[in-house]
Design a protein that fits this description.
Elements lengths: L5 E6 L7 E6 L5 E7 L1 H9 L4 E5 L13 H6 L14 H7 L17 H15 L3 E2 L6 E5 L2 H9 L9 H13 L16 H6 L10 H18 L5 E5 L3 E5 L10
Helix pairs in contact: 1-4, 5-8, 6-8
């Protein structure tokens, strides 16, 4: 295993689906883009002596900070109101900017399967020697949200990720950011009138949305390690913070 630092993005999924992970080197080349079980992902990630790893799942539990009157006042919210009271602070910070994402319930037993899997993953990473950001270390992990990443990089909310337009947009963005992915515009060279009419449109150059989520998570890990000035952290470290690949979050994204 090479000793050079790598940058990892992991996209946990629900049910029996395998997790998707991406590994980038310092030149943004893809070292790996695979699906694996939780144990398989941990085995891969634990093998790297120097790595920054982004996980698309809550890194901490909901401590109810957004329901505390005094805390709400520090955020400029009405202390006696209930809006956003059931969210973590980092979730509030993105939602108030019109970036939709999950809500972490107060009771961990009420959390969906993918979220509980995410907590298991973070526990396994810590056991493997990964320090949770902002703690420093040769191995570091943190929470990321791919939709927020793509929104911040684009400057507006992207197309839905499970559409061809959304996949094209996301991969083109990563390509323009310098990642060694195929130029997604190449798919149009293979499309003819016959292909479109028959519904047989080749998507050979286009990654799936789970892969794109893992790739943008890995790219955010790269920025946090190499260009931390081009990232922002939202939330309260007691509950978990989310890293976003921009140094200036907008007040609202259309």
């Amino acid at each position: 295993m090479a000793t050079e630092r790598v940058y990892i993005g992991i996209d946990p999924t629900a049910g029996k689906r395998r997790l998707t992970y991406a590994v980038l080197d310092s030149d943004l080349n893809m070292v790996a883009l695979e699906d694996a079980t939780l144990d398989g992902v941990v085995e891969v990630v634990a093998a790297y002596p120097a790595a920054t790893c982004a996980v698309d799942a809550p890194s901490g539990k909901n401590l109810g900070l957004m329901a505390e009157p005094d805390y709400r006042e520090t955020l400029g919210l009405r202390s006696n109101a209930s809006r956003y009271a059931t969210f973590r602070v980092c979730e509030y910070e993105l939602r108030r900017r019109n970036i939709g994402l999950y809500r972490t319930p107060r009771d961990p037993e009420d959390a969906p399967a993918w979220m509980q899997l995410g907590w298991q993953l973070f526990d396994a990473l810590r056991a493997a020697g990964y320090a949770l950001h902002p703690q420093a270390g040769a191995r570091q992990t943190f929470e990321v949200h791919p939709h927020a990443c793509f929104t911040a990089l684009l400057g507006h909310r992207p197309f839905k990720k499970n559409t061809i337009e959304g996949r094209l947009q996301r991969q083109l963005l990563l390509y323009e950011e310098g990642m060694a992915v195929s130029d997604p515009m190449l798919i149009f060279e293979e499309w003819t009138r016959h292909h479109v009419l028959s519904g047989k449109m080749a998507l050979n150059h286009l990654h799936g949305h789970d892969q794109l989520d893992a790739l943008v998570a890995a790219y955010t890990a790269y920025l946090l390690a190499v260009e931390p000035e081009n990232t922002s952290s939202v939330g309260d470290v007691r509950e978990g913070t989310i890293i976003v690949p921009t140094n200036a979050l907008k007040d609202r994204y259309s």
